[in-house]
Specification:
With 384 residues, the chain is of the alpha/beta class. The protein binds pyridoxal-5'-phosphate (PLP).
């Protein structure tokens, strides 16, 4: 636990609590915690399912077959390929649970996992908890925020068991072109590495584009797992529900590990999720449009304040380079103290995030405009 250090979002929550205690009106743009309610059909289904006493018993560990069949159907309609519900799908208590338990299942002591930097912290922390070693692959703007797989040394690769990818990407907002995913599959097969793509933002993609699934690459099923979440797609983040698809053998091992660690997801939630997956694409598209409209307010506003920021292509964050090379943790804290606007310091997501702030799009257009207005008025922060 000493090696692990503090969890950035726990530290941010503490800073927020202090700011609230001191009477500040905080606009929280730190965590990716959707502010939108789940669609009404989902809430109605939850109420219906709550009346069934069977739904309150111990859950089926790997997920009920009806839900896994619904996931398989959704996958077919979304990506055009069939998955075997029994063997190629496992239900998770949120995708974070599966992503962070993965190294426990597959790494021996001192085995390496390649982890992007910056990244969602659960990958790296899961590796550390499993006594594995982290090889950080920087995500740089000049590489379109993709890791450079040609740069890995043979010595490390010989001891590497896992490669984490996350597209649509948190925090950079990048998408992975299909060519890159193909390359990652080739690389993983050649080096006998388990390829793991985190698709938590699979449905939050802007400008009329769509994300690809690794599974659309025929050889991927030999070496890959892909993690999905209900948190952003349906604004169900508090429900703790996700799923992983991919290689049968890998799924079985993860399932066996989980059978010891947890007892599966509450049936009430699993049953309701079937309704979520059967909703027409317009429902998730409209959630996506809301984030897109917010993005189109926040990015130009930040640029006018001197931040360097691109329009994210997907996800729910804006990755913005701080004007005048300031330390991101100190800058984020100063911003909170002077304006009440809470952000995630880039360094909290990895050393390559130093000099950046991550702004979440989980606040209304009005709140985002107000945040920009407050920042504009606090000229002293910018040294002006
Ligand atoms: C990249 C990424 N992966 C996974 C997760 C976790 O999602 P879930 O709520 O399904 O555990 C998040 C949540 O913020 C995330 O940003």
């Amino acid at each position: 636990m000493k090696t692990l250090g503090g969890y950035v979002f726990a530290e941010i929550a503490e800073a927020k609590r202090k700011a609230l205690d001191s009477g500040s009106e905080v606009i929280d743009l730190s965590a990716g915690n959707p502010d939108l309610p789940p669609p009404k059909e989902i809430i109605d289904a939850l109420k219906r399912e709550a009346d069934n006493p069977e739904n309150h018993r111990h859950p089926v560990y790997e997920g009920i077959i009806e839900l896994k069949e619904a996931i398989s159907d959704w996958f077919y309609h979304r990506f055009g390929l069939r998955l075997d519900p029994e063997e190629e799908i496992l239900v998770l208590i949120g995708s974070k649970e599966g992503l962070s338990h993965l190294p426990l299942a597959f790494l021996n002591q001192n085995d390496y996992a390649i982890v992007p930097n910056p990244a969602y912290p659960a990958y790296k922390r899961g590796v550390i908890i499993s006594d594995g070693k982290v090889y950080e692959a920087p995500l740089l703007k000049e590489n379109k925020w993709l890791p450079d797989l040609d740069k890995m040394s043979k010595r490390i690769l010989d001891k590497t068991k896992l490669l984490y990818l996350n597209y649509p990407n948190n925090p950079t907002g990048a998408l992975a072109p299909k060519e890159f995913l193909k390359k990652a599959v080739r690389f993983s097969r050649k080096n006998k590495i388990i390829l793991c793509n985190d698709m938590a933002y699979s449905e939050i993609v802007f400008d009329g584009e769509r994300s690809f699934s690794l599974m659309q690459i025929p050889e991927a099923k030999e070496c890959a797992l892909e993690f999905f979440s209900f948190s952003k797609t349906y604004s169900m983040s508090g429900w703790r529900l996700g799923f992983v698809v991919g290689n049968k053998k890998l799924i079985r091992i993860l399932r066996d590990l989980k059978a010891t660690l947890d007892s599966g997801v509450f049936h009430l939630i699993q049953k309701t999720a079937i309704t979520a997956l059967s909703l027409p694409p317009q429902v998730t598209n409209s959630i996506c449009r809301i984030y897109e409209n917010r993005r189109d307010i926040l990015v130009p506003g930040l640029k006018s304040l001197g931040f360097e920021a691109e329009l994210p292509k997907g996800g729910i964050f804006v990755w913005a380079k701080i004007p005048s090379r300031r330390n991101s943790k100190r800058f984020s804290l100063e911003l909170l103290q002077k304006t009440g606007v809470l952000t995630t310091p880039g360094s909290g997501l990895g050393s390559a995030g130093e000099g950046y702030l991550r702004f979440s799009l989980t606040a209304s257009e009005q709140k985002l405009k107000e945040a920009l207005e407050r920042m504009k008025k606090s000229k002293e922060i910018w040294g002006g």
